[in-house]
Recover the amino acids of this structure.
């Protein structure tokens, strides 16, 4: 009797680890860096590099395995993908290949008695909330890197600080939104990012994003910058619509119909056009104790970051 988990351990994982080690070395990571990224010893990396570990040709030739390896290696090498995120990506691939697919075929080859069984081995749920969160964090890291590499971005940061936020697909609460802890601030002309993005650390920008979603727009990301009429003109020139909302402290609202962002976006959707574009903006021009701020929203963090970059 041989379990499918044994097939995964004995044939799938050694092959994928060998492929990942090779892909990371091709990206100029040292043997030590490859070992740290994969959570294995340097001696194991050396064995993979010298072909001293048995691999499975069917696994290595599978297009889905190759695509996942390339994506995970690129994410680990750039820092966009954490080790947890890499683990989740490979785990999800395993679960999908178990369900009457490649791993099920290898399992049947190891146990021919299974060939006539009227069931498959979908023993795990491939729809992982953890995967959504890790992908969101990876996307957010790419967006943050775009912002901090943008010349002059520090000059767009308002007094309250900027933040870049992205949410999971079905976000309804602050804990579903990832952002930069402590916000991004201008320190002597340089944008400073205090630490790696986390979930549940932003009420301000995350609140605006959730209000827009509650109004019926499927935006996934938002970034705030200082308000300036010239920025509105630049957005207009780029074909990006901007919707004004009442200058009220958004952190004091609950995202419901009385929320100023929710109300303004809902009113806009009731207008002549059916919907806003994939990328749009909301803004308020300030009031007593409230700084004027502009928010760019869109499908993901890298997209809204690029919009801000092109405003310069």
């Amino acid at each position: 009797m041989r379990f499918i988990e044994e097939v995964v351990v004995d044939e799938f994982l050694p092959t994928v680890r060998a492929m990942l080690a090779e892909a990371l070395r091709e990206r100029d990571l040292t043997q030590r860096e490859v070992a740290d990224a994969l959570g294995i010893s340097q001696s194991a990396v050396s064995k993979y590099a010298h072909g001293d570990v048995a691999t499975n040709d069917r696994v290595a030739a599978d297009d889905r395995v190759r695509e996942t390896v390339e994506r995970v290696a690129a994410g680990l090498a750039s820092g966009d993908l954490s080790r947890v995120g890499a683990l989740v990506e490979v785990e999800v691939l395993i679960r999908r290949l178990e369900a009457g697919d490649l791993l099920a075929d290898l399992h049947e080859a190891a146990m021919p008695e299974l060939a006539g069984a009227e069931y498959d081995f979908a023993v795990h749920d491939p729809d992982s909330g953890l995967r959504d969160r890790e992908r969101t964090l990876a996307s957010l890291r790419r967006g943050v890197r775009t912002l901090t590499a943008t010349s002059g971005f520090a000059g767009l940061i308002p007094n309250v600080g900027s933040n870049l936020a992205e949410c999971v697909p079905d976000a309804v609460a602050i804990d579903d939104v990832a952002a930069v802890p402590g916000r991004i601030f201008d320190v002597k002309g340089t944008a400073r990012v205090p630490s790696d993005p986390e979930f549940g650390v932003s009420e301000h920008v995350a609140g605006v994003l959730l209000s827009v979603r509650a109004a019926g727009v499927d935006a996934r990301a938002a970034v705030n910058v200082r308000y300036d009429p010239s920025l509105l003109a630049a957005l207009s020139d780029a074909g990006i619509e901007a919707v004004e909302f009442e200058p009220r402290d958004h952190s004091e609202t609950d995202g419901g119909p009385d929320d100023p962002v929710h109300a303004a976006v809902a009113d806009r959707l009731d207008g002549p056009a059916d919907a806003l574009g994939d990328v749009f903006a909301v803004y308020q021009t300030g009031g007593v104790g409230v700084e004027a701020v502009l928010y760019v929203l869109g499908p993901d963090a890298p997209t809204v970051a690029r919009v801000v970059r092109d405003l310069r």
User: Anything to note?
Assistant: Residues 117-125 have pLDDT under 50 and may be disordered. The longest strand covers residues 221-226.
